[in-house]
Design goal:
single chain; alpha/beta; Rossmann fold; 2 domains; five-stranded parallel sheet; two-stranded antiparallel ribbon; 38% helix; binds adenosine-5'-triphosphate; binds magnesium ion
C-alpha cells in the first residue's frame, strides 16, 4: 500500500485519555487513530512519562495554538511528544531545523517520476492534509525569516501550493503543530547552544509555550533501573545525584560543593545519564584490572567533552560521591 493510501485510510476514534496514558478511566476523551501507520512513532517500553505530559495531553485534546516545547538538551522534549503520539497512533512528520531549511523542505516540491512532473508533498503538507502531528525539532536553529513564513499556517490558514495547480490544503481537524528547541526563542542564556537564533517576536507570539526540564530524581532512578538493572541500586541512585550535582554546578547553583568552582561548561542530560549507566555496565570487566568502571565510563559519556579543568573537577566529584564499597564498586 502506498503511503498516501495508508494515510487516507486512517480512522479517527475517541479514546478515554486516562485509559490511554495511565491505565485508569478518566471520562476525559481524546481523539486518536484506530491503528498505527508507518508514520506512527514506535512505542518505547522503557519510557518513563515526564511530569509535563499532562500539559501536552491537554494540548493534544483540542485543536489549539501550536505548541513550543523548550528546555535543556536531552531533557526528553522530542521523545515525550513522540511517545504520547505513539499512544494515540498519531502519524508524526518530523523535521529537524537548521539555518538552511527552506519553506519547500516543509511544504514539498516538484520532482520527475517516470518522465512526468509530479508534486512531492513535504512533511507539513502531509500532516495538514491527513491529520498528522508536524514536529519541528530545533526550531530556534531556523532562519527567523523562514520561520516567519509559517505564520499563516500557525494561525490556522490553509497552505497554498502554487506548484501543484495552487492546491489549497485546509488543516485537517487532527492536524497539530509542535516545535521543540533549547532556547525559548528569545535568548540563549547559557551561551552554549551554538547556532540558535533569536526568533521573530510575532512568530513566537503564536505559540503555547511549554518548558521541559530534566525529570525528577525518582523518575531518572526508575529509568536507570530499566536501562541498567544489573548495577547496584545504590549506585544508580548515586549516579542520578551526581547528574543533579553537575547540573547545579553548570547553573552556578551548587551549595554542596561550593569549593569546586561554581561554573562548568558541560551539563548532564538524561541522554548522557543513560549512556553513562550503559557504559558502566559494559566496562565492568575493567575492575579486574584495577580500573574503576564508573569513572572510566564517565569520561566516555561526558568528561571527554569538557575542558581538562572541568574534567578534573568531574573526576574529583565522582571520587567524593562514589568512594567506598557501599556503591558495590571498587
Ligand atoms: N523520561 C524518559 N524516559 C525514557 N527515556 C528518556 C526520557 N527522557 C529522555 N529519555 C531518553 O533520553 C534521550 C534524549 O531525549 P530527547 O531526544 O527526547 O531529548 P531532547 O530534549 O529532545 O534533546 P535535544 O534538545 O538535544 O533535542 C532519548 O534517547 C530518550 O529516549
Ligand atoms: Mg530533541
Amino acid at each position: 500500500m502506498n503511503e498516501h493510501n495508508e494515510l487516507k485510510q486512517l480512522k479517527v476514534i475517541e479514546m478515554d485519555a486516562g485509559n490511554v496514558f495511565s491505565g485508569q478511566t478518566s471520562k476525559r476523551m481524546i481523539n486518536g487513530y484506530s491503528a498505527a501507520s508507518i508514520y506512527t512513532p514506535k512505542s518505547d517500553p522503557d519510557y518513563i512519562y515526564h511530569d509535563t505530559m499532562r500539559e501536552i495531553i491537554v494540548w493534544l485534546m483540542n485543536p489549539s495554538d501550536p505548541l513550543y516545547i523548550f528546555g535543556p538538551t536531552g531533557s526528553g522534549k522530542t521523545s515525550l511528544i513522540k511517545q504520547l503520539a505513539s499512544k494515540l497512533n498519531y502519524p508524526v512528520f518530523e523535521v529537524t531545523g537548521h539555518s538552511r531549511v527552506e519553506f519547500a523542505d516543509l511544504a514539498g516540491h516538484l520532482s520527475i517520476e517516470k518522465g512526468n512532473m509530479i508534486f512531492q508533498y513535504g512533511p507539513l503538507s502531509l500532516a495538514m492534509k491527513y491529520g498528522g502531528l508536524f514536529l519541528l525539532n530545533e526550531l530556534d536553529l531556523l532562519d527567523p525569516a523562514t520561520a516567519s513564513g509559517l505564520n499563516s499556517i500557525l494561525d490556522g490558514s490553509p497552505l497554498c501550493i502554487s506548484e501543484n495547480g495552487s492546491e489549497l490544503i485546509y488543516p485537517h481537524p487532527m492536524f497539530r503543530f509542535a516545535a521543540t528547541a533549547n532556547t525559548n526563542g528569545g535568548i540563549d542564556e547559557s551561551g552554549l547552544y551554538q547556532g540558535t537564533l533569536k526568533q521573530n517576536i510575532a512568530f513566537m507570539d503564536r505559540f503555547w509555550l511549554c518548558e521541559v526540564n530534566y525529570p525528577e530524581p525518582q523518575a531518572e532512578v526508575q529509568l536507570l533501573n530499566k536501562v541498567a538493572p544489573n548495577l547496584p541500586e545504590k549506585l544508580r541512585t548515586g549516579m542520578v545525584d551526581y547528574a543533579n550535582e553537575v547540573r547545579k554546578l553548570f547553573m552556578g547553583e551548587s551549595a554542596n560543593h561550593a569549593e569546586l568552582e561554581n561554573s562548568i561548561e558541560v551539563t548532564f542530560s538524561t541522554r548522557t545519564l543513560m549512556r553513562w549507566a550503559d557504559l558502566t555496565v559494559r566496562f565492568q570487566p575493567l575492575s579486574q584490572q584495577g580500573v574503576q568502571p564508573i569513572t572510566y565510563a564517565l569520561n566516555r559519556a561526558l568528561g571527554f567533552r569538557a575542558t581538562r579543568e572541568t574534567r578534573a573537577m568531574l573526576h574529583e566529584l565522582a571520587q567524593r560521591m562514589f568512594s567506598g564499597s557501599e556503591h558495590g564498586i571498587n
